[in-house]
Write a structure and sequence with these properties.
Structural class of chain B: mainly beta
Radius of gyration of chain A: 33 Å
Distance between the termini of chain A: 32 Å
Number of helices of chain A: 27
Largest sheet of chain B: 13 strands, antiparallel
CATH architecture of chain B: Beta Barrel
Strand content of chain B: over 45%
Oligomer: heterodimer
Shape of chain B: globular
Number of helices of chain B: 1
Distance between the termini of chain B: 22 Å
Radius of gyration of chain B: 19 Å
Helix content of chain A: 55-70%
Order of helices and strands of chain B: HEEEEEEEEEEEEEEEEEEEEEEE
CATH class of chain B: Mainly Beta
Shape of chain A: elongated
Number of strands of chain B: 23
Largest interface: A-B, 46 and 44 residues
Structural class of chain A: alpha+beta
Strand content of chain A: 5-15%
Number of strands of chain A: 20
Helix content of chain B: under 10%
Chain lengths: 808, 356
């Protein structure tokens, strides 16, 4: 085929879209939204992954093993020197968090000189002057622009901050000595990095440093990508759902376009254009649409991701302690993935249309109606597919794990979507039997006939509603439980963090005369059931007995824990390690039986609590800086103020209960802001799908409406009936979505959350949420149905009359 | 000599975060640091120790060794000190002293080396005058007691594929170069304090990939400190320390430039020193790059020597690369010695590895 001829044929094909710009807009909008949601989430994930990678490579320690103090011991500069003098090539690290008002910044203290010798380690220092300033107090720090801005008003004792675009997100890099003083570590270090190549004939580490444990790269709590995988998987699952909903729009637009162009195709074929040529050009047309809409979708997705990124960054930092940049960079990875998804989605949506064109007999009359009709055979086929998918749910659940959990969710949701037209058809058949009166009878029959054309859009609406109900119920249940848990967990009026141990001791003495009780809460990192965890030491007090969020406990639990005879563990630890009451828990210094299990939300890691005396005996080196203070609530503010004055404490050192709760809830709300935003967008996409479906139908079903009009039903009444039909279908879909959504919520709470976070929550159904979503469904249907109804009300009688004249 | 200067200057030019700052230290301001003084009297054991008010300093031992079969080996043990500032705390992380060390063992067909870095102030590296001890990590050069000064030394180092452990005993006095240890390095008058102990007899053991070797031989210790940067026009240095079989020792060196600055010392077997200048001494390189063969002419002493590397592939692929290895002496006299070449295009056939 010559280029000129191809251009001519393509021009003829494209003329269809010129005549129906709205249909073209729908096609492009569907593809664009699907791509936008997908690539937006991919962009967020890519940014987070890049942040983790930057942190690992900029600090050059990602691939190297580390030595860390064993539970209960401390690592000091002296240990570093002793190991070096024994021949081990190590470089010290002092890491920690610096609280600055409400924000936190990671401080990474490195030793640039020994780092030069760690072959694969990055990070060095500048020229003499730079190195001198780097190591000499008040020091020189490296941070990216974002971190530097956050540190602008912070009191860092005169530290100069130098911009370094390669610095990891939310991290300040300083010399080891400067870090020790900023973090008030005194002489302590947090780790020694081991060079890959060590000299020959060294004494074994167990001899040279028996109190240090070797942590291999990628192992332990230092690797954020492992911890946050579940969070990113959550986002990806939502993106995929949105993409599928977006494809429904594309599918109906493409299907209609093929149907409406049958006469044109027949003419083209009659003029001598080969079938293969038509097919190739139609495929090219789709590819162009996919690329244009895909590109627009990527831009939109980028904007969406940029808007959501700060919230995601706050979540990852608040929930997992992973530092991620709040800014978004354009990365080729997700741009390519977005375009590929747009092309693949279009191919999927257009396959049926192309296949039908290929099979179309040359002289067959253009028949629009069959495309839209729900055949009994089609419905049976859908029901069968749904049955297969439903059978997959228990199979996936039996496999276990987060990915299988999501697979089970996907099976359940798709099955529910496939069954929707079957259920609606059954309901309409029932209604047909009950219908009285000619008009009602026609209305029901006509609705049933339209079901085929609308089913994809209704399925999209159902999925969007179910996702909203499911996620909304989960977040609502979570929030209610979390708020109640915060009330229990944050029972003390004030929480005080001292800068040094002598200061902490002085504060305890000073508070002794002024507060009802001072409850030291000291903690140390320790492996719990072979995972990095944290052990807390606390003293027995009514505060705990009355309000600790215990899930299950043995009698006399508080006495036994206080006397050092038993331990408490959090729910995550109990679930992951399959620990029950009475089981022994391995702890440094010997195992203790578990006497209680408590809920611990907002923290994905294992945790255990033991009596303070037992704690200090087992963890002699743990910093003793943190304490809770009980005072009459009305005195709390005054006491906090007096304490800050007396000890010249920074504002952030004394936190009152209200503030702690507020901050915790803020983190919580930000965590789910992303899913809420995705939900709203999914609903919007479903609305567009419905509008597309309705517009499609409106153009096809004129031959069915014309006789009714001719029989004396005015156009306005017909339009009202049409709108009513849309609303009834939407309402029926919403009703159907309620059990599906609640099922989804149940799966999220009992399967996904347990896998992702390690806690199980009670499900609290909110009628409020269901009502709101019912209204949202009706509003979506109203918005989508108004335009077609309005068009029908204003259609010229001539057009209706022409139906009788036209030869179809 | 040159490698010492360059290596120390490396400490003033450590790679910055992602960017190489080159030899920025070359033109650095030396204000505040002590300067070499012709009137200064070297006093021992005090001057065996570190001079922290000077910018750069080194303890540099090279040994020519031989095993029972007569195979030649070379060993090098070097500790560099670099002060980032003329004053500052002596202990703690903020002490402004930075240390670097190189060790190497050269065989006729192999060359093994390692590199170490350390911060002052925390005990990882340092030097004490009496009893003498210079150390970084587990590398050391230590006298058994205060009374022996540096006459008897234990020298040890190891890398990922070699180790050395040597006992050295001085058979002659300390040697002060230039004018009583004040050694001028350029026409512009740049200078250093420079003394040597060239009379060590050594024995010890080398650990190599093919096994352990007992060795004996001679060693030469150089001690030098200064604060003055190099002239930018000076491209590199050639330095050699030669043990002649007649008991004499010869230190001959040149700073290459326009013109090159030649200096040296002829040391009698009793330790008497005759300072040498470009008028006395002529150094002619061979054709290879870097030149691992030389002709050294000192007509006044009747010397016309041919110098040839035991192993031409003795490249030190350290942070600042240079060539350093043992040589054999022929011509009008025989003997063994050490040669150091810096500022040449990087050599080929580097073996061994470095670590910190």
């Amino acid at each position: 085929m010559s280029l000129r001829r191809a251009a001519l044929v393509l021009g003829a094909l494209l003329s269809h879209w010129r005549k129906r710009p709205l249909q073209l807009a729908m096609l492009l909008a569907g593809l664009m939204l699907a791509t936008a949601l997908w690539s937006g989430v991919q962009a967020i994930n890519a940014e987070a992954r890049a942040s983790y990678a930057t942190a690992a490579s900029r600090l050059g320690t990602g691939a190297l093993a580390r030595l860390q103090p064993a539970p209960g011991s401390v690592l000091t500069t002296g240990d570093h020197v002793r190991l070096r003098r024994a021949g081990w090539l190590v470089s010290p690290v002092a890491e920690g968090q610096l609280r600055l008002g409400g924000a936190r910044v990671s401080v990474m203290g490195i030793e640039p000189v020994t780092r030069l010798g760690l072959a694969s380690a990055g990070g060095g220092v500048g020229e003499t002057e730079e190195l001198l300033r780097f190591i000499t107090p008040p020091g020189l720090g490296y941070a990216n622009a974002e971190t530097a801005a956050a540190l602008e008003s912070a009191d860092l004792g005169g530290l100069t901050i130098r911009l370094d675009p390669d610095a990891p997100a939310n991290t300040l890099i300083v010399d080891i000595g400067i870090a020790q003083s900023l973090l008030r570590l005194e002489d302590r270090l947090t780790a020694l990095i081991l060079a890959e190549d060590q000299p020959v004939g060294l004494p074994p580490l167990t001899e040279a440093a028996p109190h240090l444990v070797r942590v291999e790269p990628g192992q332990g709590s230092t690797d954020p990508s492992a911890l946050t995988r579940s969070f990113h998987l959550n986002l990806t699952a939502f993106a995929l759902l949105s993409f599928i909903v977006g494809l429904f729009i594309t599918q109906s637009a493409v299907g209609l376009a093929f149907e409406q162009r049958r006469p044109m195709l027949r003419t083209l074929r009659a003029l001598g254009v080969a079938r293969a040529e038509v097919m190739a050009l139609m495929a090219a047309e789709l590819a162009i649409a996919a690329l244009v809409a895909g590109a627009a979708g990527i831009v939109l997705g980028w904007a969406m991701a940029a808007a959501l990124m700060p919230g995601v960054a706050a979540t990852l930092s608040g929930l997992y302690g992973a530092e991620v940049s709040g800014a978004l960079a354009l990365r080729p990875g997700w741009v390519a993935s977005g375009l590929a998804m747009a092309l693949a989605g279009t191919a999927l949506a257009g396959a049926r249309g192309l296949a039908q064109t290929a099979r179309m007999p040359l002289l067959a009359a253009g028949q629009a109606a069959p495309w839209a009709e729900a055949t009994a055979r089609g419905l049976r086929r859908q029901a069968l597919a749904a049955a297969v998918l439903i059978a997959g749910v228990p199979l996936c659940l039996a496999v276990g794990g987060l990915v299988a959990g999501f697979a089970a969710l996907a099976c359940g949701l798709l099955a529910a979507a496939l069954l929707l037209p079957v259920a609606l058809d059954a309901a309409l058949r029932l209604a047909a039997k009950l219908a009285r009166g000619v008009l009602t009878g026609w209305f029901v029959a006509d609705t049933r006939q339209q079901l085929g054309g609308l089913s994809l859009a209704l399925m999209a609406l159902m999925l969007a509603l179910a996702a909203n109900i499911g996620v909304g119920t989960m977040v609502g249940s979570f929030r209610a439980t979390f708020t109640g848990w915060l009330d229990q967990r944050l029972a003390a009026e004030l929480y005080v963090t001292a800068r040094t141990e002598p200061e902490a001791a002085a504060i305890r003495v000073w508070l002794g005369e002024r507060a009802d009780a001072v409850l030291p809460i000291w903690n140390a990192e320790a492996p719990l059931a072979d995972q990095p965890g944290r052990v807390y030491g606390f003293i027995d007090h009514a505060t705990y007995r009355e309000s600790w969020p215990m899930l299950s406990a043995e009698p006399g639990v508080w006495e036994r824990v206080a006397q050092g005879e038993a331990a408490l563990v959090n729910e995550q630890l109990a679930r992951r390690a399959e620990l029950r009451l009475g089981d022994p828990l391995d702890l440094p210094g010997g195992p203790l039986p578990i006497a209680g299990i408590y809920s611990d939300y907002g923290n994905p890691n294992p945790q255990a609590m033991i009596g303070l005396d037992a704690f200090t005996a087992r963890f002699p080196g743990a910093p003793r800086l943190y304490q809770a203070v009980r005072v009459p609530p009305e005195d709390a503010a005054g006491l906090a103020e007096a304490m800050r004055d007396e000890f010249d404490l920074p504002a952030s050192a004394v936190v009152d209960q209200d503030r702690a709760k507020r901050v915790s809830l803020q983190i919580f709300d930000r965590t789910f802001a992303v899913t809420a935003a995705l939900n709203v967008l999914t609903l919007a996409v479903a609305g567009i799908a419905l509008l597309t479906g309705l517009l499609t139908l409106a153009s096809i079903r004129l031959p069915q409406l014309a006789p009714v009009w001719a029989a004396g039903i005015p156009r306005a009444r017909l339009a009202r009936l049409d709108l009513a039909r849309t609303l009834i279908l939407a309402l029926a879909t919403a009703v159907y979505a309620v059990p599906v959504g609640l099922g989804l919520a149940w799966m999220l709470l009992t399967v996904i959350n347990v896998e992702a976070f390690g806690w199980r929550l009670p499900m609290l159904v909110s009628p409020d949420l269901l009502a709101r979503l019912g209204v949202a469904a009706l509003l979506t249907a109203l918005a989508a149905g108004s335009l077609p109804a309005l068009r029908l009300a204003r259609i010229t009688p001539g057009k209706l009359l022409r139906v009788f004249a036209d030869e179809r | 000599m040159s490698a010492r200067w360059l290596a120390v200057l490396l400490l003033a030019a450590l790679p910055a975060f992602g960017q190489q700052s080159g030899f920025a230290g070359l033109g650095a301001d030396v204000e505040g640091f002590a300067l070499p003084d012709a009137a200064y009297d070297l006093t021992f054991p005090r001057d065996h120790g570190a001079h922290e008010d000077f910018r750069i300093e080194w303890w540099y031992l090279t040994a020519n060794l031989r095993d029972a079969e007569g195979r030649d080996y070379g060993a090098q043990w070097t500790l560099f000190r670099s002060a980032l500032a003329p004053d500052g705390p002596e202990s703690g992380w903020s002490a402004p002293q930075v240390w670097m060390a190189h060790a190497a063992v050269t065989t006729p067909d192999g060359h093994h080396f390692a590199e170490r870095f350390g911060r002052g102030g925390i005990g990882q590296a340092g030097v004490t005058a009496a009893p003498f001890s210079a150390w970084i990590d587990d590398w050391e050069m230590t006298a058994p007691n205060a009374a022996s000064g540096i006459d008897r030394l234990h020298v040890a180092a190891r890398g990922s594929d070699f180790a050395l452990s040597l006992e050295a005993e001085a058979q002659g006095p300390l040697v002060l170069h230039g004018a009583d240890g004040f050694s001028i390095k350029s026409e512009a008058g740049q200078a250093s304090h420079y003394y040597s102990q060239p009379f060590y007899e050594v024995s010890g053991r080398l650990t190599l990939p093919q096994g352990e070797v007992e060795v004996t031989g001679q060693a030469w210790l150089d001690r030098e400190w200064s604060s003055q940067p190099l002239d930018r026009s000076q491209q590199g240095w050639d330095w050699m320390a030669l043990h002649l079989d007649d008991g004499r020792r010869l230190m001959a060196a040149q700073v290459r430039g326009q013109p090159s600055f030649v200096f040296g010392s002829l040391i009698a077997p009793d330790g008497n020193v005759q300072p040498l200048t470009g008028d006395d001494l002529r150094l002619t390189p061979g054709r290879a790059i870097p030149p691992t063969t030389w002709r050294v002419e000192l007509p006044a002493a009747g010397l016309d020597l041919d110098i040839e590397a035991v192993n031409p592939d003795a490249n030190m692929a350290t942070s600042v690369p240079y060539w350093e290895g043992p040589v054999r002496i022929g011509g009008s006299a025989t003997g063994r010695g050490y040669l150091e070449l810096t500022g040449y295009p990087p050599g080929q056939g580097v073996s061994g590895r470095s670590g910190g």
